[in-house]
Amino acid sequence: MLSQRCREPTDPACIALKNVSGTAPFYDWMSINQANADGNHQAVVPDGTLCSGNNPTFAGLDLPRTDWQATPIQAGADGSFEFIFRGTAPHATRDWIFYISRAEWSPAQPLRWADLEEFCRLGNVPLQDGNYRLRCPLPAASGKRVIYQVWQRADSPEAFYTCMDVHFGNSTVDAIFDDGFQAP
């Protein structure tokens, strides 16, 4: 996920992203998609291309780097976290699927499906005041991780993909993402 600091890139990870992909990843998050995924995510988004959704326009998001900025994340008292996605183009939903990178995965390596563990799956969630509010139990985790999210439409075979760099244990926050692709 892109932090506000990447909007005018001065940090090395954001500069590298811009050098590979130009400026599209800084404003066009809703295009990290596959038009014909239809639930076959591992077939249309191969290992090493998860963060770009295997869309060449966003290839810079797949750069293996240890310096991507991470958003602090921590479960609330009930053990859950609310992800809030702005619904700028609302769609009927088949699945919202959340994965977390395994503790042994290194961000210096390309992200693969085998590096992920599913921790939350939701069906159709209604749009509320322009947002999808997705409450998921967070797995026990610490340190820097990637939360990978897939949004499969029910009214089309199109699916959207999101990588969120997070750091467990710093503070309790709810994160808001525009179409699942922007950090607050």
Describe, in plain words, how this protein is organized in 3D.
The protein has 184 residues and is mostly beta strands. The chain has one domain (4-178): Distorted Sandwich (Coagulation Factor XIII, Chain A, domain 1), CATH 2.70.50. Helix content is 8%, strand content 34%. The protein has helices at residues 12-21, 41-44, and strands at 33-34, 71-73, 80-86, 93-101, 116-122, 127-128, 131-137, 143-153, 159-168, 175-178. Strands 1, 2, 4, 5, 8 and 9 form a six-stranded mixed beta sheet that branches. Residues 171-184 have low confidence and may be disordered. Keywords: Monooxygenase, Oxidoreductase, Signal.
Topology overview:
Elements: H1 12-21, E1 33-34, H2 41-44, E2 71-73, E3 80-86, E4 93-101, E5 116-122, E6 127-128, E7 131-137, E8 143-153, E9 159-168, E10 175-178
Parallel strand pairs: 2-9, 3-10
Antiparallel strand pairs: 1-9, 3-7, 4-5, 4-8, 6-7, 8-9
Mean pLDDT: 84
CATH class: Mainly Beta
CATH architecture: Distorted Sandwich
Strand content: 25-35%
| CATH superfamily (homologous) name | chitin-binding protein cbp21
Count of the domains: 1
